[in-house]
Structure formats: C-alpha cells, structure tokens
Amino acid sequence: MKKVINLLLLSGIFFLTIGIHQVSAQKWGYIDSEFILNKHPDYKLVQNELEALKAEWKKEAQNLEREVKEMLSTLKAEEVLLTEEMYQERMAAIEAKQNSAVAFNNRVFGINGQYYQKQTELLQPLQSKIFDAIDKVAKRNGLAALHDKAASMGLIYTDPRHDYSEFVLEELGIENK
Predict the structure, then answer these.
(1) What span, in angstroms and rounded, lies between the C-alpha atoms of 109 and 69?
(2) CB 73 within 8 A of CB 89
(3) Which stretches are annotated as coiled coil (predicted)?
(4) pLDDT tens-digit profile of 72-102?
C-alpha cells in the first residue's frame, strides 16, 4: 500500500513539473488596439460619420429642450390670464413635450440606443479586419496568448519587445509614420 501511495505521489510530482514547464515555455505578447485603431484610415472615416450623426441628433435634442423652455416661458407670461383649466391643459402639453424629449434622448443616446447601434454597425467590419490581422500575426509568431494593452487593466508593465502592434499594422497594410 505504501508503495502505491509513493508511486502515485512521484507520478503526480512528475506530471506537475512537466505541466509547469509547458506553461512557462508558451510564448505571449500584447498589442495596443487603441494605437492600431488610431492608425487605421477607416477608423477616422467612421469617427467622422459618428460625429456627424451625433451632432445631428444632439441638435434635435436641443431643439426639443428649447421648445419646452419656450412653452414654459409663454405659460409664465400668460399665467395670470389663464383659467385653471387652461393652465392645466398647457402644463399637460409641456409635460408631454418634456417626456417626448426624454424619450428621444433615451432612444438615441441611451443604452443600446441608435447611436450605440450605429457605432457597432460601423466599427464591426473594421474590428473584424483587425482581429483577422491579429490572428494571423499570433499564428505566424507562434503566440499562445496575445493581450490587449488598451483594454486590459491587468497589465502593469509591458516590455516593448513583446509588442506586436506594429506587426498587426503591417498585416493590415498600414505604415506607421
């Protein structure tokens, strides 16, 4: 019985040692996705389109807010001339307009709003290209893991010789100037 336990213990230590050596022998690297995105010419086009949409929608939201303020100031000016019933009708119209403005902001700029959806739609093809390039670079260089410096808060220090961002740019056909 003692021999079996010793044999199991020795074989466990042996396999654990082999596993540790295999893990430490794996090659890893990192990229900076923010750096890569900023270097990609299509990203600037996407950003410009998103900014134009954002400005348009922001203007609509501001117009709705301005209309509410105008309705409130008109109500204040005419308040003494209105009956209670007329006053309540106008307040209800103002509240409806305010609710409409809030609904517009939520629909456009809220979580999963139109702006977010458009951003996802425009960035998806670019992200796919970059991911394909990252995949090719990782396979070509025999990397077991490739971390994103821009997205990972867990990287405290990175040695520049493990930075594969330039290789990804090269794979995308982008010159780093």
Answers:
(1) 21
(2) no
(3) 43-81
(4) 999 999 989 989 999 999 999 999 999 999 9
